[in-house]
Write a structure and sequence with these properties.
The chain contains three helices and five strands; from the N terminus they run αβββααββ. It is α+β, with helices and mostly antiparallel strands. The chain has a single domain, classed as HIT family, subunit A (2-Layer Sandwich). A hairpin with a 7-residue loop joins β2 and β3. The two termini are 24 Å apart. The protein binds guanosine-5'-monophosphate (5GP).
Length: 121
């Protein structure tokens, strides 16, 4: 799948659409999800044009991957969810339920989150 530079997160990265920013480094931007599913629900996105986790892990440089995942851990600690814990979600592709085609992870926490996957689908 080719990267669509008009996706909503690309527009946020370019500053064309506002976001409630939590953190930024050279390789990542973190901001609150517009429709939170938990008391804490923050998205972390890489700054490069990667469609999904599949694309990111295949094509990003080592520096981008390290910079991104260091940011994810940092943000979770700064949000205060690292202890007692949180869920990291990377919906990937059609069956993974990914809606925005720019790689992102969700950091969800702030309450017990129950089972990993809804068996009902
Ligand atoms: P996905 O289903 O692709 O893993 O998750 C996309 C997430 O992006 C959803 O949780 C949705 O609420 C969030 N989202 C969609 N549009 C916007 C937006 O314009 N701003 C922010 N902050 N979040 C968005």
């Amino acid at each position: 799948m080719a990267y669509d530079s008009e996706n909503i997160f690309a527009k946020i990265l370019r500053g064309e659409i506002p976001c409630n920013k939590v953190y930024e480094n050279q390789h990542a931007l973190a901001f609150h999800d517009i429709n939170p599913q938990a008391p804490t629900h923050v998205l972390v996105i890489p700054k490069g044009p990667y469609v999904s986790n599949d694309d990111f892990t295949a094509s990003a440089t080592d520096a981008e991957i390290v910079g991104f995942f260091r940011a994810v851990g940092h943000v979770a600690r700064e949000l205060g969810v690292a202890d007692p814990g949180y869920r990291l979600i990377a919906n990937t592709g059609i069956e993974g339920g990914q809606e925005v085609p720019h790689f992102h992870v969700h950091i969800c926490g702030g309450r017990p989150l129950g089972r990993m996957i809804n068996p009902a689908g």
